[in-house]
Design goal:
This protein is mainly α and about 90 residues long. It contains 2 helices and 2 strands; from the N terminus they run H-E-E-H. It is elongated, with a radius of gyration of 18 Å.
């Protein structure tokens, strides 16, 4: 891969990684930090409790799913493959 494409690939990969890390940080720390101020019911439970018990896990799985999907598409776009040649 030419150096210009390599830089562009790394920039896109770093951008999505930083974005998903920001989502992870918000779900993990911001919701817990403001847990006492968040006082509404979600599926019959207080939102902060539900987010700590199940919501965060759902978001983590969605982050992993999106990252894998995005990187596979990016690899195909730039002709990078993890599979050995035949």
């Amino acid at each position: 891969m030419p150096p210009a494409h390599n830089r562009e690939y790394r920039r896109k990969a770093l951008g999505v990684t930083l974005g998903l890390l920001a989502v992870w940080f918000a779900v993990t720390f911001v919701v817990i930090y403001f847990a006492r101020d968040i006082e509404f019911r979600f599926f019959g439970w207080p939102f902060s409790f539900w987010m700590g018990a199940q919501g965060a896990l759902i978001v983590y799985v969605l982050i992993i799913w999106y990252y894998a999907r995005f990187m596979n598409r990016l690899d195909r776009e730039y002709g990078i493959s993890d599979e050995p040649p035949p």
